[in-house]
């Protein structure tokens, strides 16, 4: 799925104009992650929104354990401070579109 189609199918970006989605697509960078790789830690400063294109990312908190799993086409917002731990699960291919915040 291309990035414009991905953006249009998410709740977060789906209501934006085509022009706005195109601008976001221009700054998105695809990254391939390894299985069991940590994407961000609880308390980290937020720097991006991640759109999962394949594979799964597990969200958890250090004191309560697993909260849930993000699946393809779901945005994972790297907020400030990050309230969760996000790491990839076992899988053959975990890919994300990384949209960095303007001040990072």
The structural class is: alpha+beta
Number of strands: 8
Count of DSSP helices? 2
Low-confidence sequence ranges: none
From the alpha-carbon coordinates, what is the Rg to the nearest angstrom? 13 Å
What is the CATH class of the domain at 29-100? Mainly Beta
Sketch the major β-sheet.
4 strands, antiparallel
CATH architecture of the domain at 29-100: Sandwich
Adjacency order of strands in the biggest sheet: 1-8-3-6
CATH homology superfamily of the domain at 29-100: Jelly Rolls
Estimate the strand proportion. 35-45%
Mean pLDDT: 80
Q: For the terminal residues, how far apart are their CA atoms?
A: 27 Å
Measured as a percent range, the helix fraction is 10-25%
Apparent shape: globular
CATH-derived topology of the domain at 29-100: Jelly Rolls
Order of helices and strands: HHEEEEEEEE
Description of the structure:
This protein has 2 helices and 8 strands. It has a domain at 29-100: Jelly Rolls (Sandwich), CATH 2.60.120. The chain has 104 residues and is α+β, with helices and mostly antiparallel strands. It has a 4-stranded antiparallel beta sheet with strand order 1-8-3-6. The protein has a 4-stranded antiparallel beta sheet with strand order 2-7-4-5, with no helix packed on it.
Q: Key features?
A:
104 residues; Jelly Rolls; four-stranded antiparallel beta sheet; 2 helices; 8 strands; 15% helix
Short account of what is shown:
The chain contains 2 helices and 8 strands. By secondary structure, it is of the alpha+beta class.
């Amino acid at each position: 799925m291309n990035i414009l189609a991905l953006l249009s199918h998410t709740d977060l970006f789906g209501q934006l104009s085509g022009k706005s989605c195109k601008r976001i697509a221009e700054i998105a960078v695809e990254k391939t992650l390894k299985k069991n790789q940590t994407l961000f830690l609880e308390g980290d400063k937020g720097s991006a929104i991640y759109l999962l294109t394949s594979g799964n990312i597990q969200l958890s908190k250090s004191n309560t354990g697993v909260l849930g799993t993000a699946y393809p086409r779901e945005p994972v917002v790297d907020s400030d401070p990050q309230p969760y731990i996000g790491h990839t699960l076992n899988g053959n291919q975990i890919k994300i579109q990384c949209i960095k915040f303007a001040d990072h």
